[in-house]
Write a structure and sequence with these properties.
Number of domains: 2
Shape: rod-shaped
CATH architecture of the largest domain: 2-Layer Sandwich
Number of strands: 5
Helix content: 40-55%
Strand content: 25-35%
Distance between the termini: 127 Å
Structural class: alpha+beta
Length: 216
């Protein structure tokens, strides 16, 4: 006996469509639920991290301000140090001590002095400034941030001495010429003379002591 399907075909297709729509609806609800949960988690994270971010921004701004203050303080310190060095140079502070150290480092057992002359001069250079600036030129910042002044300082010395031989005199002159504190060292003259112990060389030499803070 043959089976007869009494269920209409349209009913079956409608049932199939309802099942499909139900499955899509469940999937959509799942997606919407997941999206809502994710959005809630993001909002929570923002609520937690935003104050931290603001704190980091405030700390960064404070650190930057501190760095700027330190840089400004360092610049003021360097400016004050330069001004102090310039004032000492203009006053000639320590010039005699530096000269004594240079001479003490150059003299040897075969050399002695008959005389030493030391003189200081100060000259304010006017525009237009000579180029290059003379050796011994000191740059001084004017008062209250004024224009830079250029002073030419000259600490000149002349030595008249005796040497027991050419070697002793040459060693003395080479040591003076190589001293970084001295400049423009010049041999002037020499002559031989007889003494009770033999023959000595009379000589004279001139140079200049470089002021502290001056341009080489």
């Amino acid at each position: 006996m043959a089976d007869v399907d009494m269920i209409p075909r349209s009913y079956r297709e409608g049932l199939r469509a309802r099942r499909t729509l139900f499955a899509y609806g469940c999937a959509l609800a799942f997606v919407l639920g997941l999206g809502g949960g994710t959005a809630a988690w993001v909002r929570w994270r923002l609520a937690v991290e935003t104050p931290r971010l603001e704190q980091l921004r405030a700390a960064t701004a404070l650190a930057e301000a501190t760095r700027n203050q330190l840089a400004a303080a360092q610049a003021r310190k360097e400016a004050l140090q330069q001004a102090s060095n310039a004032l000492e140079a203009l006053r000639g502070s320590g010039a005699v001590a530096r000269l004594a150290g240079s001479i003490d480092g150059a003299v040897n057992d075969g050399v002695w002095f008959d005389g030493l002359q030391f003189s200081r001069t100060q000259e304010l250079l006017r525009d237009p400034l000579p180029q290059p600036l003379p050796v011994g030129t000191l740059q001084v910042q004017g008062a209250a941030g004024g224009s830079v002044e250029h002073w030419h300082l000259a600490n000149r010395l002349e030595i008249a001495g005796q040497a027991q031989d050419n070697e002793a005199m040459s060693r003395f002159l080479d040591a003076l010429s190589g001293d970084p504190l001295l400049t423009d060292v010049r041999f002037l003259n020499s002559s031989a003379s007889k003494t009770d112990t033999g023959v000595s060389l009379a000589f004279s030499v001139a140079g200049a002591l470089r002021p502290n803070g001056s341009t080489p």
